[in-house]
Specification:
heterodimer; A: 114 residues; mainly beta; seven-stranded mixed sheet; four-stranded antiparallel sheet; B: mainly beta; Immunoglobulin-like; six-stranded mixed sheet; five-stranded antiparallel sheet; globular
Chain lengths: 114, 110
């Protein structure tokens, strides 16, 4: 597709379960970003990939959160032992050049942990 | 920690008027700034950007002003329309990642 695609658009899970969120960036974009957004707040940086490697993962809140991008395209954000506080919109963005370039966002995956 | 903040959380304007949304940033090392628009239930959408070697940039109905001396950004929207109603975020890029502010909700009254 032409834009950043995120699946699922909505995910409801129970506390303690494992969740995977997928991001398919714009073709040819080398940089990929994950953000988390709570209601009424700005997006909060989680992790940034340049190619296959994580260039900056300083925003991951704890070791329950992990992200991969094995082939430099699709990325998966993985959350273990989910907690109610993990409930948020998870946004993915991609960029052609990374630093100093426009980020194109997907529509997000809304995670609700019951 | 690093932060980008907005002076006004909400702004209500009459259709046809000009809107000005302000933003303060904290990181002097940031060299690239972006304004995003986010409608309810959607991802942020790029509006306009500016690099630190510029103090003004114009787009279609939008202008961004950058004052590096006081670390201040503003977004001006000319002839505001109902479709402009959304939350607007400024963002800065120190070291690759984009850091967002809290947002200003713009409401346009017909």
């Amino acid at each position: 597709g032409a834009g950043v695609s995120q699946t699922p658009s909505n995910k409801v899970t129970e506390k303690g379960k494992y969740v995977e969120l997928r991001c398919d960036p714009i073709s040819g974009h080398t940089a990929l970003y994950w953000y988390r957004q709570s209601l009424g707040q700005g997006p909060e940086f989680l992790i940034y990939f340049q190619g296959t490697g994580a260039a900056d993962d300083s925003g991951l809140p704890n070791d329950r959160f992990f992200a991969v991008r094995p082939e430099g395209s699709v990325s998966t954000l993985k959350i273990q032992r989910t907690e109610r506080g993990d409930s948020a919109m998870y946004l993915c963005a991609s960029s052609l050049v990374g630093t100093g370039g426009e980020l194109f966002f997907g529509e997000g995956s809304r995670l609700t942990v019951l | 920690g690093e932060s980008v903040g907005l002076h006004l959380p909400t702004l209500s304007v009459q259709e046809g008027d000009n809107s000005i949304i302000n933003c303060a940033y904290s990181n002097s090392a940031s060299d690239y700034f972006i304004w995003y628009k986010q409608e309810s239930g959607k991802g942020p959408q790029f509006i306009i950007d500016i690099r630190s070697n510029m103090d003004k940039r114009q787009g279609q109905r939008v202008t961004v002003l950058l004052n590096k001396t006081v670390k201040h950004l503003s977004l001006q929207i000319a002839a505001t329309q109902p479709g402009d109603s959304a939350v607007y975020f400024c963002a800065e890029t120190p070291g690759g990642k984009l850091i967002f502010g809290q947002g200003t909700e713009l409401s346009v009254k017909p």
